[in-house]
Design brief:
By secondary structure, this protein is α/β, with parallel strands linked by helices. 42% of the residues lie in helices and 20% in strands. The strands form four sheets. Strands 3-2-4-5-6 form a five-stranded parallel sheet, with helices on both faces. The protein has a five-stranded mixed sheet with strand order 7-8-9-11-10, sandwiched between helices. Strands 14-16-17-19-18 form a five-stranded mixed beta barrel.
């Protein structure tokens, strides 16, 4: 796939100089900070040195006072409380922390995760019926519910109150619940809008602790699970999420809960885990519970206090994750073949596919894989009884949630975010939906948005890449949306010795510039081998990382793309 390269806007020289001189930091690092809207020394210090005290007062969130009052009443009256959450990582981690915390005050509690296949996303009538049958008069809904107006009303008629803790975009009207905690409410002035669903649950706990006069350090117990939710739900990692992720990673590395310990044993044992390890290691294992079978299994692991029991539960999740990988691989292969064998699909600006027997639990992953390969707004449908359920994934700068909304009369239900959404349609509307969605994408998307972009922070020479510079960049961690690992560009490189292709897919190379030599590895970049062979001069975009081999640690370039000077001129023209 051909990438376009673009430089981030050059930051004002005076702001870069201020940070460089005041903080005595590398000018390149100062440039990256200013690009990320960190322009004052005090902001930079706050960024480099997060503190739990930087978290906002939870009572700034609209309805938080109502939520805490209702929970206090339920605990005082010994009411039954049901903790209800979505079946993904964000929902199950949210249920795990809220259930564990409030269970210590009220033993009449249980948790409920809807079945992905029988009930679908969000609040379900089956869940409300479960609450009624078991005498639960208060439901705390986590990572869902902000659009469940009708079901909240039905529950109220049955004598069941709702507290909704959600982070998704609300509809035109807010449900008539006791409290709706969602910073994305237009009438909520909470200073930070990008909390995960688990993060909203954490704020609920924080508010209860604060009002009850408890030791604030009781919050620390849940930080590792909040970090797992932040990483897995791909939410913005600046502001309050940076504080939570920073301390959550510290707990994950130093004192993880028993459940996460057991999941890490089934992953890879490392000295230090990062956001990337959560995204590609812990998250998929937790998600596999709800994708393949019952998501309650994920909550069971996360709240388990006995290590041996937790290891047995984690083993099951690991097996489900292996099954999920096989399904993902098979369906992706089918989907790619469908696209490659259809001139019409290749010509379109969107991709909409349906597989009669595709597993609903992995179609979101398949949609992401198709975006990676074909780079178009993509929806993958599978059948759920007499309805088609779809997962949508988008490309940069295209709001797929909004595009689905424009297909309104053909869509039974939908929700999500700008770049990822879920929806359901009637089988008979599939063809009309494909046509309408393609027309909307064709009208709204720019040519530029159909070409994947590598956006680099600053240009470097190889001489700039020292261990001190690398360690200064690491001070920006944890990395994630809004604060990605910096990408650099270096021009006029050549290969020293012979470049090699590893496993027919990857490029291993030593790059040379003005007397400086450095190793580079490009995963999936075997196709650029001709650009670096012989005496060709080329440009590269990359991240900087450490590589340990034979007990020796060196810096290397994690190559993202390579272009010859001629190619760069062609793209510019």
């Amino acid at each position: 796939m051909e990438y376009r390269w673009s430089a981030k806007p050059q930051p004002p020289a005076d702001k870069v100089a201020l940070l460089t001189e005041t903080l005595n930091i590398n000018p390149k690092l100062a440039s990256i900070l200013v690009q990320r809207d960190i322009t004052h020394p005090d902001e930079a210090i706050r960024f480099f040195e997060p503190k739990m005290e930087h978290l906002h007062d939870p009572f700034l969130m609209k309805d938080m006072d109502k939520a805490i009052s209702r929970i206090e009443q339920a605990i005082k009256d010994k009411e039954g409380i049901l903790i209800y959450g979505d079946y993904d990582v964000d929902g199950t981690t949210a249920v795990a922390i809220v259930y564990q915390f409030f269970r210590s005050f009220n033993p009449r509690m249980d948790y409920y995760i809807p079945d992905r296949y029988k009930e679908g996303y969000g609040i379900s009538r089956q869940g409300i019926a479960f609450a009624k049958e078991n005498g639960y008069s208060l439901i705390i809904a986590l990572d869902c519910g902000v659009r469940s107006n009708v079901l909240v009303e039905e529950a109220k008629a049955l004598g069941i109150d709702f507290i909704i803790c959600d982070h998704h975009l609300p509809g035109a009207t807010i449900p008539e619940a006791v409290a709706v905690l969602d910073p994305k409410r237009s009438d909520c002035t909470y200073p930070y809008k990008e909390l995960s669903g688990c993060g909203i649950g954490f704020k609920l706990i924080q508010a209860y602790i604060q009002k009850s006069g408890m030791d604030p350090s009781r919050l620390d117990e849940y930080l590792d699970l909040v970090a797992v939710s932040i990483a897995s739900d791909i939410v913005d990692i600046r502001g309050e999420n940076r504080v939570l992720a920073y301390f959550g990673l510290k707990k994950l590395n130093n004192d993880p809960c028993i459940g996460l310990q057991s999941l890490l044993h089934n992953y890879v044992m490392k000295e230090e885990y990062t956001i990337t390890d959560i995204v590609f290691g812990l998250g998929p294992r937790i998600n596999a519970a709800g994708r393949i079978a019952d998501a309650r299994a994920a909550v069971k692991v996360l709240i388990e206090k006995d290590f041996n029991t937790s290891m047995q539960l984690a083993k099951v999740l690991n097996e489900r994750n292996v099954e999920r990988k096989d399904l993902d691989s098979d369906i992706t292969r089918e989907a790619v073949e469908m696209i490659q064998q259809s001139e019409e699909l290749l010509r379109k600006r969107s991709t909409v596919l349906f597989g009669e027997h595709w597993h609903k639990g992995v179609i979101g992953i398949v949609a992401s894989r198709l975006v990676e390969q074909f780079y178009k707004p993509t929806i993958v449908f599978s059948r759920t009884e007499n309805m088609l359920t779809g997962s949508a994934r988008s490309v940069k700068d295209f709001d797929i949630h909004e595009a689905i909304g424009k297909c309104g009369d053909l869509v039974e239900q939908f929700g999500g975010h700008k770049y990822a959404a879920g929806l359901s349609i009637k089988s008979e509307n599939l063809e009309a939906f494909c046509e309408r969605f393609e027309a909307i994408v064709h009208e709204d998307i720019s040519e530029r948005s159909l070409v994947p972009e590598i956006e680099y922070d600053v240009e470097l020479s190889l001489a700039d890449i020292t261990k001190d510079f690398y360690h200064s960049i690491q001070k920006l961690a944890p990395f994630g949306p809004g604060n990605m690992l910096p990408v650099f560009k270096t021009e006029n490189l050549c290969a020293q010795g012979n470049a090699r292709i590893l496993k027919e897919k990857h490029l291993k190379i030593q790059v040379y510039q003005d007397g400086q030599l450095m190793d580079g590895i490009g995963f999936g970049l075997a196709e650029v081998y001709p650009y670096v062979s012989g005496n060709n001069r080329f440009h590269a975009t990359y991240c900087i990382e450490e590589n340990t081999f034979n007990n020796r640690t060196t810096l290397q370039l994690r190559l993202k793309d390579i272009k010859t000077a001629e190619l760069m001129q062609g793209l510019a023209s």
